[in-house]
Amino acid sequence: MNEDNKEVGVWACESEGAIALFEGEIPSEECQEKAKCSWCHLKWETRSFCRVSTFEGNAFSATDAGKTRCDKGAEGDKCKLCLMGQQEWEEYAAEKMEQLEAEVKGATNAYLVDGIAKLNEMKCRGLDSHNKSIDLCIAAFTDIFNLGADDQNWVMRESHHVDIDVPYTIPRSIPPSASMTSIWAYEDEDKYGPRGMKKICIEFRGKESGIKYRIDIKYFHERATKLAGRIDDLVQANSLYPASDAILRGFVVASDFLDFQVNREDTDGGWDYLCIDPSGDFGVWPGDDVATLIMCLYDDLKTALDPAMYTLRHGLDDASKIAFLNGNSKVSIHRLMAYDAAYESIINATKTMPTEDVHSLVSKLKQNFSDPEFANEAQPDFDEAMLQEGALEGEWYE
């Protein structure tokens, strides 16, 4: 121990821990406000907060509820925050809030930057058309991100605090804030996947339904590299089959360098697999399918109005109701039920009506639901069964 620290008053402290640790070295004198010992001086220098004291020993004291040590202590024993004048505190709090806002903004933007970086990792030199399809995925990701996140549609969030520890109930406190995103891309390690596989998951919610979706994308760089090595020969041969792209499409499918599957959040927060496989309906390259899927699922309630979207419609009525109960839906109960009635009418129409009449019905439904105010209010003059019957007659909501 430093001999200078044995002077009278140097180790005097009310701390029982200090007394036990330095027994025999602590004089009986108490520290004075203007002459603190090294121990108390260090404690003061590192103390920038006050804590709630609701206990007297091991017993609760109702009179102390909500009070801090600063409220009870002498002026010289108060923390730095409580010693500040009001103007000084406001300036300090404004500076801390500015730092917090900058931190939250940076963390929020990081979701976008990180997502773009992860998608870019699925590009392959020599496969220009595939790389362009990944750019479409990035554009879809960016579009949804730029629409912003809130307490209803976020899929990933993180709390941020300032570097002072003050209970929220204390007047001089700075509440935490949160960075959040409405679409999130992250890498998922698949221990049972083939060697060299990279798996990226993208999570987002339907913009009206609030239903959470996850698209799992599996990318195999070695397979893509092999395809890139013969791409010039394939493109040249494919030019002889411009209508079907049969050669290029066949080799892209055979190489299986990029695969994906769609999942929808279930009642308990787990995932249900959705058997949605465009099979090149939106282009030769699988990235085109992924980009289209992102935007279709983002607008899921309207996408499901298409007669061919029977897989998406299956279970959508229940999933949308669960999302509503969870507080994630952005539509009214009445509009949600109108969607349910529309899906039922489409199912019935495809079984009983000519194709031309079905398309006419669907066109009318899409036109109605394109209005964000449509069916937001109750329709007391007819129930769901009447809606379905009217839809079959092509008169629904005319």
Structural description of this entry:
This protein is an alpha+beta fold. The chain has 3 domains: 3-86, no CATH class; 92-298, no CATH class; 301-398, no CATH class. 45% of the residues lie in helices and 12% in strands. The protein is built from 16 helices and 9 strands. A 5-stranded antiparallel β-sheet has the order 5-6-7-8-9. Strands 1-2 form a two-stranded antiparallel ribbon. Strand 1 (55-56) and strand 2 form a beta hairpin. Helix 5 packs antiparallel against helix 6 (128-146) and helix 13 runs antiparallel to helix 14 (333-352).
Concise summary:
This protein has about 400 residues and is an alpha+beta fold.
Helix and strand composition category: alpha+beta
| Total strands | 9
Structural domain count: 3
Mean of residue pLDDT? 80
State the shape. Answer: flat
**How many DSSP helices?**
16
Helix content: 40-55%
Span of the ends, CA to CA: 91 Å
**Major sheet: arrangement of strands:** 5-6-7-8-9
Helix/strand order: HHEEHHHHEEEEEHHHEEHHHHHHH
| Estimated share of beta-strand residues | 5-15%
In angstroms, what is the radius of gyration? 32 Å
Low-confidence stretches: 5-12, 44-48, 51-66, 165-169, 385-398
Largest sheet: 5 strands, antiparallel
